[in-house]
């Protein structure tokens, strides 16, 4: 910035700095996109078919539930809370759907509506207990995880009963057919992009700006008139509803089991952290969080290609989450 | 004063993300000298000090201590070389006592356990050295006032053998009466041969305390002067590059006053007892009092931030009891808090997000687009004379004074009918201060009712149409605008009651 620009009041150097600002924004939140690109290229080198439309879409389809869960986790994290209950909530979705639908296609849509309501209610409960009743969200949602796990076990007696209908499964499995070149555009990919776009818009809107300000400085937000409890509860509700959506997709992918959602809460949080979302709130973008989910999924693919067994995935994930948080802390220290 | 040069900084340059904020600064400090550094908000004073303290490594330039070139890559290295710095935000642990805070991380150890006796003995000696007797080594920091905490910070720096002590706006957080305490301490250190770099926006203090003054403008040194050979007028001229008249804006005429907008009757809270007053449209009412006399508590209670035990608040003739600040904002109140980092700003968010935070909570974006008179972020920046790179810059990167302007903008945007200012110009440079005073008066002229809390008596006296004085949670009295400082202090300290 030249001296004249500093001296003038108002905004100096706006125009000249635009390019530079873009670069510095990329440097602070863009790391994840570069990492993602590197992984894609690397996987393609190991396995050239990955870059073809079919396999690449299959990868996106596989990633969709986690991307959607990461968006939900983002809302909660950025407001300064944790949601550890989404994994077991996903399991609840699949188990409840199977039991209530019992293979009967006509029941599909009412049940889907019910699942979304369950997601919202569980999210609301998490939010209400964490804000109004002042139980730390880490504890609230950890408790919720256990409660839901127990409820599933009690309700199914250990082995889930019933079956999903074909039209329920088609949401996770099928898509729009007959599209040239890519043949099929999976519903799940479409849903992933729609939810991604909606999340971005939401974060740009007044609600999103109030949410992130609350996570950054609760007292300042409250004194500016933000209803901090309310925006935080809404974040939990969004997380719950998005967990329901992810559960519906996952029900279509795999079979009905009491294990479908296991560990997904950590995958989602890892994805956010990888995307630069700072635990404790106030920092990070939702796009980067979703890109973090795509990166994590790509990493699992890469590990597979390297012949590293599934059991090691947990270890890798543990290293990532510590590394990413450490890196973020280092970067914040540098910026002070 | 000895003539021995203690510190020599030459050609210091520093850039952040490609933008240079220090363009080759030279500065020297002698042993036993108090060297004041003045300049506008964002001139680079704090950044210069941080290059000395090892927080930021300078991109270019040399730092010499006792003629030896040094380069610090960590605050601890600067500490070891005898540089102590006291920031505006203290870093003390409230639940530990004074001795523990002073020796944190380097507790004396005997037979594998912390030697508390030695720690306390040495702390007592340090406190004695600076003539501090109002608290001891075992006093928990939580019990100390802001001024006393500052003494602990300075003593801590001293215990690390600091021979160069940097004080960055040390009086910004102090009440009028506490400033003398700090001065005594600083002069004491001066006698011990410590070189003090003293940053302040209060020129009165600078003249009272310093031997030399360096003026910094836009990241460069304008001039270094001997305090005895200059005056306030010349200094201001060098700082802002233009003449400032030094007068406060003209008060409104009596018949400009409108209806009563804010009426408080019998207000009692945990800290207040039976406080009653009113503020009219077009009027600036000053609220004076010592630290802890309940000034901020009045503001918080009226604004719905703290619960009210008894009494009523009327806005435009209607009784209101706000349970949440949002209701106050909706009813047309704005509250510029005194602690901008803790209560005024979301530091990691952009200038634009901070400026729009309050208006967003009460007016949906659709309505904002169709409301006349709402300013754009760019216009707000111009009105408040903000200096920043652009609306997307995070506010934590702004200098202290510019952060204050962002807080002010946030409330201007809600088009309030009643504005409560708690220390409106804390940390703001002389040029911008006059600008903010003009702005407050202009708001009043446009029909806003203003309640202004300030510890700076000249400001309070110059700006207010009436002055209310608080003493220990009770309204001790009311004075007309233009009352004298002794009149106010008499009421504020409660000595008037005795005399009467
Ligand atoms: N870490 C940082 N990253 C980017 N810019 C910074 C950083 N720290 C300071 N700046 C910029 O450097 C300039 C000088 O800031 P500095 O805090 O030194 O000002 P100052 O003279 O202390 O002002 P004040 O009187 O308001 O405290 C400002 O424009 C500020 O925005
Ligand atoms: Mg400063």
UniProtKB/TrEMBL annotation, chain A:
Where found?
Cell membrane
Q: Write down the membrane topology.
A: Multi-pass membrane protein
Q: Name one GO cellular component term.
A: plasma membrane
Which Pfam families does the entry mention? Answer: BPD_transp_2
According to its UniProt record, where is this protein mainly located?
membrane
Q: Which InterPro entries match?
A: ABC_transp_permease
Q: Where are the transmembrane segments?
A: 22-45, 57-77, 84-101, 107-128, 135-155, 185-203, 233-254, 315-332
Which keywords does this chain's UniProt record carry?
A: Cell inner membrane, Cell membrane, Membrane, Transmembrane, Transmembrane helix, Transport
Q: Which GO terms describe its molecular function?
A: transmembrane transporter activity
**Name of this chain's protein:** Autoinducer 2 import system permease protein LsrD
Organism of this sequence? Solirubrobacter phytolaccae
UniProtKB/TrEMBL annotation, chain B:
Q: What InterPro entries does UniProt report for this protein, alphabetically?
A: AAA+_ATPase, ABC_carbohydrate_import_ATPase, ABC_transporter-like_ATP-bd, ABC_transporter-like_CS, P-loop_NTPase
In the bilayer, the protein is annotated as:
Peripheral membrane protein
One of the record's GO cellular component terms: plasma membrane
The listed locations are: Cell membrane
For this UniProt record, give its keywords in alphabetical order, as a comma-separated list. Answer: ATP-binding, Cell membrane, Membrane, Nucleotide-binding, Repeat, Translocase, Transport
GO MF terms here are: ATP binding; ATP hydrolysis activity
| Residue ranges occupied by any ABC transporter domain in the UniProt entry | 7-243, 257-497
Q: PANTHER family this protein is in?
A: CARBOHYDRATE TRANSPORT ATP-BINDING PROTEIN MG119-RELATED (PTHR43790), GALACTOFURANOSE TRANSPORTER ATP-BINDING PROTEIN YTFR (PTHR43790:SF9)
| Protein name in the entry | Sugar ABC transporter ATP-binding protein
**Organism source for this protein?**
Solirubrobacter phytolaccae
